[in-house]
Amino acid sequence: MTRNQEIRPDIDEGIDRKVLAQLRARFLRINSGRLERAMEALSTRQQLVLKLLPLLFHVNHPLLPGYVSGLTPAGLSGYEPADDVLAEAQRLTRSFLYKPTRGKVSQPIHGLFLMGSLGTLAQAEKSDMDVWVCHAPDLPVERVAELQRKCHLLEAWAATQGAEAHFFLVDPARFTQGDREAHLTSDDCGTTQHYLLLDEFYRTAIWLGGRTPLWWLVPVYEEGRYREYVHTLLSKRFLRAEEVLDLGHLARIPPGEFIGAGMWQLYKGIESPYKSVLKLLLTEVYASEHPAVQCLSLRYKQAVYANRLDLDELDPYVVVYRRLEEHLASRGELERLELVRRCLYLKANKKISSPPRNGRKSWQRRLLERLTGEWQWDQRQLTMLDSRSQWKVRQVGSERRALVNELTYSYRFLSQFARLQQAASSLNSRDLGVLGRRLYAAFERKAGKVEFINPGIAPDLAEDTLTLVQAPAPDGEEVQWALFPGTLTHQEWPDFAPLKRSRELVELLAWCHLNGVIDSSTRLSLHPGNSDLSEFELFNLLGSLQQVAPLPLPPVSEDAFLQPATPKDILLLINVGLDPLRQHSQMNIHMTTGRTDSLGYSGVRENLVVTLDQVSLNSWHEMLVSRYEGPHALLDCLSDLLNGLGEGPKPNVLVRCFCRNRAPAISARVEELLRDLLAAFASDIPQRYLLQIAQQYHLLDLTPGQVRHRALSDLPALLRSLGQEQASYSPVTIDRNTLEGEDLLLILPLGRPDCIQVFYRLFGDEAELTVLDEHNSLWRQRLPYRDESTLITPLQRFLQSVLYRRTTQLSLGESPVRESPEILYYELVPPASPRAQAVERRSEPRSEITLPFYNVQAIIEPGEQRRRHVTLYCNQREFSELEFGGDLFAAVAGHILAQRREAERYPCYITDLDLSAMLGEGPVQTIHFLRYKAELEEALNIALQKA
């Protein structure tokens, strides 16, 4: 058999040991070439590390690097150091004297293998050394621990030589069973990718010393019966066991590994897509071939058996590229193929558009020149890729689209593959869900979300000079903000295309900040158009964004993605580019007023909070911008903010205003209001918050998740709103600048649950009654006043009858019956004054049994077409619509007057009311009865005056 022939061993016909030796020699020839290439790109000190590693694991000398103790396992199988290696060791330690180990029984270090990009097209100056240290399976635990300590010491020593080394202990017996405790490369995703890691090992690892892989000597067509084939080789002494290392075969790769590998590469690809696209696509190719996967290590082995030993074509990255090229070209996916080519070129990081620095071309450069020639790339394209470190917004935006499309496609493919193969365990399902959320947070567009355009594409997008312009939109109906590169005059910028347009300034600035387009060294030219934006305000807006979202943002934990996104940091910017007192500024008028509240400024109560821009950074690190303007901008913004709060920690909120007039006072007022709202919102009881803005009242319902506000034009509208029924007790918090001089300011803070509170205030011959019921709903009535007894006693009797009726509907057989609400009485003092100063408690009125008491009972029942039927009983005599029709109240009024001396026309009061047919079995509160009472009394007293 000649050297150039393909080798096809047939175990059934017998195997020639010379053939096996020839196969091993071919693998070692490739290995030697890769090791030489790896050394070529290393510094002298780094070369020393790689050259000495086999010796340092072979001997255990106190003066050599990595020494732990005399008991540390040492001895590399079959290794004998060359003279140049011994010379290097003696340069390190003059007293070192090597003693040959021939005949030494114990050689517990079975093999050393170099993983990673060393010796490949992608080797760079900072490439690390991942070294597998394969040791004897029977090493005691304490000896393995000693060996691990030796590895740590060697890592530290390598660092002193300018080499980043990582050592991973491998027990071949456990590894073959898929059992490993540690990550086996610095780029390893964990324990879920045994076969894919083994595939990468077989096609990329560089043998440094010890036993050679047994897998080398098993033909591809025998992979399916690997165990049987290996048993024959060893049992019939074709091979000696102490010469080979068995790490297993690749006959079948479980589908779950493709899911794990894909998820890991997608996870890494979110921040560094160029590094992940190649492996991600390779995983896709493997998965699409399942179960008959032709993994690259088998192709590599087949090439060696066929004596195709071209180092360039067997380069691990070229092998991956050729497989992806074959797959994508066959599917006609040429855009994806171009992306793969760019990823490979940028991964190699050899700028071939310019001459080599030392005038000598490396093998990597020559290989890249050959590949790019195949791809028909011209000088312009090479120059563009070689200048990636200088890429700015336009180049990055174009590249981002291709990368995001690829990552999104891979995620969908991965999810579909998991469903089809039913390979998604509960853990994988959760991980896929988390990964989907990571992709969504990083790349998905949605209204208000600031797009992040640079996921590891270019190192720095900051522009030296920029021009910010406000100008009419092309349709002329709206204005827009635009950002241009360079410094442009008012006459120049219309002729240039902007980097970014936006309807609102804050959205544009947030985009600039998140993507690093503006940094501390950027010089900005401003053309503010019709806005009031100044350079001072612009500078402070950018500073506020940096304060609320300092870059770079830290990684988001997996726990955060297990929960819905919630706001973490919020920035409220008030009156951006707008002067709320612009007319006064233009006229150079400085107002002097005692009313300085920013929500009701001066005697005309101007609202100085005209617009708000909310920038929020949530727990998934999405940046969202919302704009609020119009008469209810402030409360719309605060309602949305409160509704967005989750159950966890509350967000940090920063309120800022930089407009020309009263900016500190405006931001302080909004900050104060927000603080009060958050305190009320945190209560265990859903609250209402009363606020006055300009001429209007606003009542906010602070129910979590359902915060809303109502605008109320005047005090009567407010009273009607406060009088609406409540599902449960709901206190009212009053803003510090609201209800100035109004009785409600004294009454509302006294509300108590499960208590009916009656307040009265005297105005000469009139009195005002106000009631807060057990749910804090408010009822008010103005009445003629004679004395306190005739004012309070009718209401007292009515309330007592209402409570009695409600008590009779409760079951006595269950747990203790809840007590009826307590009735308390208060007077606002001093009487007959323009403003009440205080509220004083009054005792319950004492009604003597002997006093005349005219009982007027009402029963209201529903009728057709939303009509109501009323029946009245006057001292037990019935008056119904069936008898009197539309004259019911006139008939009752006549009857009452007939009972009085000299037909006195003082008011008549309803003393009892039945609403059981109207309200059914739903929740009933006292306010329902008071409303109907007032309505009936008004109709009855009008009839009394007319009678």
TrEMBL record:
GO BP field: cAMP biosynthetic process
InterPro entries: Adenylate_cyclase_1, Adenylate_cyclase_1_N
Any one Gene Ontology molecular-function term assigned to this protein's record: adenylate cyclase activity
Protein name (Swiss-Prot/TrEMBL): Class I adenylate cyclase
One Pfam assignment: Adenylate_cycl
Chain ranges of the Adenylate cyclase class-I N-terminal domain: 20-216
